[in-house]
UniProtKB/TrEMBL annotation:
Residue ranges of coiled coil: none
SUPFAM superfamilies linked to this entry: Ferritin-like
Pfam families per the UniProt record, alphabetical: MiaE (PF06175)
Protein name, UniProt field: tRNA-(Ms[2]io[6]A)-hydroxylase
Length: 213
């Protein structure tokens, strides 16, 4: 009989695009999955925060890069979807008696963004690569959690896997299309930083935290 870990891994692979799986530098550690299941309220609260931040990032790109029609189209759609997801998470929290409150951000996104170059178009390319990594990691973590969740939350997260997968594809496509030179080395650089962030010890649980210290 297959082990639970094998079944979970197979389910993950079935849910996620192959390109996304190969893009991520490593799998989410099992210790994070256990940590998430021990903190269901924080998981939902920080998930809501992440959806809000994702919409904000898309909007900031809309305002800054008005001369990029394809980017404007993709980011407009992404911002609408992320805000819808935010509304859906808040509704789930309310139904479950989870009080939405301010919590500190994880070091994940800032740990990636501190390496963004200052000059254009390199700055934009770095931001798009980071966006692809964040969306891909979010997709993978939803997929890792699904086998352990109640039916309502599992169904919701399954729908998010599909949309986050599209967002990953859009960010990566934009990065490749708008770059003036190959970006494989830059992707590798940020992938290494991302792997460090999701595998290093953290003292507080967040959706994008590392493993418990």
């Amino acid at each position: 009989m297959p082990s639970t870990d094998t079944l979970e891994s197979t389910a993950c692979q079935d849910l996620m695009p192959a390109e996304l799986l190969s893009f991520l530098p490593c799998a989410t550690p099992d210790a994070w999955v256990d940590w998430a299941l021990d903190n269901p309220e924080l998981l939902l609260i920080d998930h809501a925060q992440c959806e809000k931040k994702a919409a904000s990032t898309a909007m900031s790109l809309l305002y800054r890069y008005v001369d990029q029609p394809l980017l404007l189209s993709k980011m407009s759609q992404l911002a609408r979807e992320e805000l819808l997801h935010f509304e859906q998470v808040v509704k789930l929290m309310e139904a479950r008696g989870v009080v939405y409150r301010h919590i500190s951000a994880s070091r994940y996104a800032e740990g990636l963004r501190r390496h963004v170059r200052g000059e254009e178009p390199e700055r934009l390319i770095d931001i798009l690569i980071i966006g692809a990594l964040i969306e891909a990691r979010s997709c993978e973590r939803f997929a890792r959690l699904i086998p352990h969740l109640d039916d309502e939350l599992a169904k919701f997260y399954r729908s998010l896997v599909k949309s986050e997968g599209r967002h990953f594809e859009d960010y990566l496509m934009l990065a490749r299309r708008l770059a003036t030179a190959p970006i494989d080395e830059r992707i590798a650089f940020f992938s290494d930083r991302e792997a460090e962030l999701v595998t290093m010890p953290d003292t507080v649980f967040r959706f994008h935290s590392g493993v418990p210290a």
